[in-house]
Design a protein that fits this description.
The chain is built from three helices and 61 strands. By secondary structure, the chain is an all-beta fold.
């Protein structure tokens, strides 16, 4: 926008690209001819330079290097001589550059590299290069681009509807794309213009990192560790095992050893995965920052870190964990620190991820909010930061776009802008394509023989992952992932299928109210079925929600309102008065992710539905009237934990917190820390609770453990039994005093006999 003041012959410029309304003022009579343009210094400049300016009639056009064109055609702004326009346009260029506060000092962090936006590509979370193709993903979309001309990626094809996409691995014309709560996608990329989904794999938890070695996929699933999957048949990926870690964000492998960025524990972990059915941790190294992405070259491992450093006090380490750490892994079981560099201190609780890629003599690190850094590693014991780049400030935001992921091309770095799109960062002499190193690829398959009988449980193993179960009489209504909804008749010696209802996508959860069954069918939304006399299901209604998937549903009698877990961290309430046409009547989003089974299946006090938020605790939703209302949460200044949960205990609410159990009255709004807490000596109780009568079951899904307690005297609970599983248990149910466990890929488990109470 130009403003002209003839009295003072001054020009005031405010660019729409200027951050937070920063204005640039020019006054004077510099004698520069309009059609001429000089080369402006690029130091600290994120925008492009102006190579040409054209004046014709009353229109002035500036053409930028990234092919962005700006025109001014308002004759009212042209009463002054054209000789003023060149310095004015220089100021316009400056306004396209980031505000000075966002650039890092070149003396410490190397010269700034200006990024160039790639047209037609939306917000990105990850990028990957394979040959002359670049693949990108973000917000559920997958892109294929031609990078024959490295600085000018051209869109060839795409695919939508993949959910909350995060990372990409490319192997043998297949793209493996993680999508957090939406699992893993296998995509055929043999046709550039028409990528297609081969299959979808229902991961144990939030699929975040991905690496593929031979026919084995390693999926970092955060607090659950790394899930190991057989992808020898891409149409039917099969679960093999899970490696428990602290908090796996990313992983990368070579020759049967897996390297893991262990996030909050600030570690680099090494696992021996040469037998994918029995992985084992063999080493760890302490990082000076939160662990995430990394890479290998030769005898060295490069680990990107972020957030907080190790320090004597919290204040000393605050935000100082950002950097690159290099280890000698000549012996993978004994990683030896070699050197490292530090990036600027920074702390953002969202979009906190870090990645590293090597090309030639340089390692490039994506440090999200800090941008990206180029590190010269020719002198491995003395690495040096030689360049950096910061992405533009996206529209309607007040900071530069964080870099979600990076990939290397011929003289360029490709950067994924989480909010604004894909960028090319010219880096001649620094960026070369990553060379894939040889890998003793892993290949295996599931054992041919069935597992031996379990002395503790009867088991039923469908094809899919058993995520939840609701027991009504002798019937266990079971959500079996890709194997649909299955009704099993329970007896002392068997669990017999009596009906199987296929679903269009994985079924995560079921809830029964009267003769209706409600199913959370992920991308298929909320489905309502009528239970027929022969226990088959007849669909009577479906609610599909754009953009996010339904992961859990509870709809206790009278069945008017259903509470839903939607996406990663949102609850909805649907009005099912007309089951054929459900209607969303309440939406709520609070602090923290949902890790499953956080909705209480029962109605409390005849009026409340309850969701247990990981940080803000039990949320009470009053559904006694025509319009549901969120009346608040049971507060606690100590906050709550993702490892715990809540369930009905009679007409009260039982919660697990701080290693003990507590009882809340319906709608309880007192500080939880003021309420009595009951524990078991020598035990730190945690998990998703379920009760029946005098028995309490705690499902510790991330630890593959179920504990059974006697709570006949709730003030003095007693541990009865503890079951270590190979699967990952969801919330338990009960049948004739026995626990029924939805144990993921271990199947549905029925306790053979009730555990006797200990004396």
């Amino acid at each position: 926008m130009f403003r002209y003041s003839p009295e003072k012959a001054n020009v005031f410029l405010q660019s729409p690209y200027a951050h937070s309304g920063l204005n640039y003022f020019y006054a004077g009579t510099a004698n520069i001819s309009a059609p001429e343009i000089t080369t402006y210094p690029s130091e600290g400049c994120r925008g492009s330079l102006v190579p040409a300016v054209h004046a014709a009639d009353s229109t002035i056009t500036a053409v930028f290097k990234d092919e962005h064109t700006v025109q001014w055609s308002d004759a009212a702004m042209l009463p002054f001589p054209l000789k003023f326009l060149s310095p004015l346009l220089c100021l316009f260029v400056i306004s396209l550059c980031p505000a000075a506060e966002y650039f890092h000092p070149s003396g410490t962090y190397g010269k700034p590299l200006p990024p160039q936006a790639v047209p037609e590509i939306g917000p990105c979370q990850a990028v990957e290069v394979s040959g002359d193709r670049l693949y990108a993903t973000g917000r559920g979309r997958f892109y294929v681009t031609d990078i024959t001309e490295a600085e000018s990626p051209k869109l060839l094809g795409g695919l939508d509807g993949l959910g909350n996409t995060r990372q990409i691995a490319i192997r043998d014309q297949i793209a493996y794309v993680t999508a957090r709560q939406d699992g893993l996608w296998l995509i055929d990329i043999s046709e550039d213009s028409n990528p297609r989904v081969i299959s979808h794999y229902d991961t144990i938890e939030m699929a975040t990192g991905i690496w593929v070695s031979g026919s084995i996929a390693f999926i970092a699933i955060r607090c659950y560790g790394v899930e190991i999957v057989d992808v020898s048949d891409p149409e039917k990926p099969r679960h093999l095992s899970t490696l428990k870690t602290g908090e796996a964000q990313s992983c990368w492998a070579r020759d049967g050893f897996l390297y893991i960025g262990d996030w909050a524990p600030k570690k680099l972990l090494v696992a021996d995965v040469r037998n994918p059915l029995a992985p084992k941790l063999v080493a760890e190294a302490l990082l000076d920052g939160y662990g995430d992405g990394g890479c290998l070259r030769g005898q060295y491992c490069f680990a990107a870190t972020g957030h907080h450093a190790r320090a004597k006090t919290k204040e000393d380490g605050e935000g100082k964990g950002h950097g690159l750490e290099i280890y000698d892994i000549s012996d993978p079981t004994n990683p030896v620190p070699v050197s490292g560099v530090k990036f600027p201190p920074s702390y953002h609780i969202s979009n906190d991820m870090w990645a590293a890629r090597i090309g030639g003599d340089h390692c490039v690190v994506a440090d999200t909010w800090n941008g990206l850094f180029v590190v010269d590693i020719r002198r491995i014991h003395e690495p040096k930061i030689v360049a950096h780049s910061v992405l533009p400030v996206p529209e309607r935001r007040d900071e530069p776009d964080p870099v979600g992921g990076i990939a290397l091309g011929d003289g360029v770095i490709y950067a994924a802008g989480i909010y604004s799109g894909l960028y090319v960062v010219p880096a001649p002499g620094m960026a070369v394509p990553t060379v894939v190193e040889s890998d003793a690829a892993l290949r295996t398959s599931l054992p041919a023989n069935s597992p031996p009988p379990d002395p503790d449980f009867l088991s039923y193993r469908p094809e899919g992952q058993v995520r939840s179960v609701t027991v009504v009489g002798d019937i266990a209504w079971t959500a079996c992932g890709v194997a649909g909804i299955q009704a099993l008749r329970l007896s002392d010696e068997t669990m017999t299928p009596v009906s199987i209802t296929p679903t269009t996508s994985e079924v995560f959860h079921v809830s029964v109210s009267g003769n209706r069954l409600y199913a959370a069918e992920s991308a298929g939304g909320l489905a309502t079925y009528e239970i027929q006399p022969d226990l088959s299901l007849s669909e009577i209604g479906r609610l599909q929600l754009k953009g996010r998937n339904v992961k859990q549903v509870v709809c206790p009698p009278p069945g008017r309102f259903a509470l839903l877990h939607w996406g990663s961290a949102q609850t909805l309430i649907a009005d099912l008065e007309d089951p054929a046409h459900p209607e969303i009547v309440l939406k709520d989003s609070q602090v923290g992710l949902f890790y499953g089974d956080q909705l209480v299946p029962e109605m409390l006090g005849g009026r409340y539905l309850v969701a247990h938020w990981h940080r803000s605790g039990p949320a009470w939703y009053d559904v006694s009237g025509e319009t549901p209302k969120h009346i608040g949460n049971s507060p606690d200044e100590r906050l709550f934990s993702w490892t715990d949960g809540a369930c009905a205990f009679g007409d009260d609410l039982l919660i697990v917190k701080g290693g003990k159990i507590q009882i809340l009255r319906p709608g309880e709004m007192r500080e939880v820390s003021e309420l009595p807490a009951y524990g078991v000596k020598g035990q730190h109780l945690r998990g998703r609770p379920s009760t029946q009568g005098e028995r309490l079951a705690l499902s510790r899904r991330h630890e593959q453990l179920v504990q059974v307690l006697d709570i006949s005297d709730v003030t003095n609970p007693t541990l009865i039994n503890e079951y270590k599983l190979t699967g990952h248990p969801g919330a338990c149910a009960f049948w004739q005093g026995r626990i029924v466990i939805p144990a993921a890929y271990q199947g549905l488990l029925l306790e053979r006999l009730p555990s006797p109470a200990k004396d």
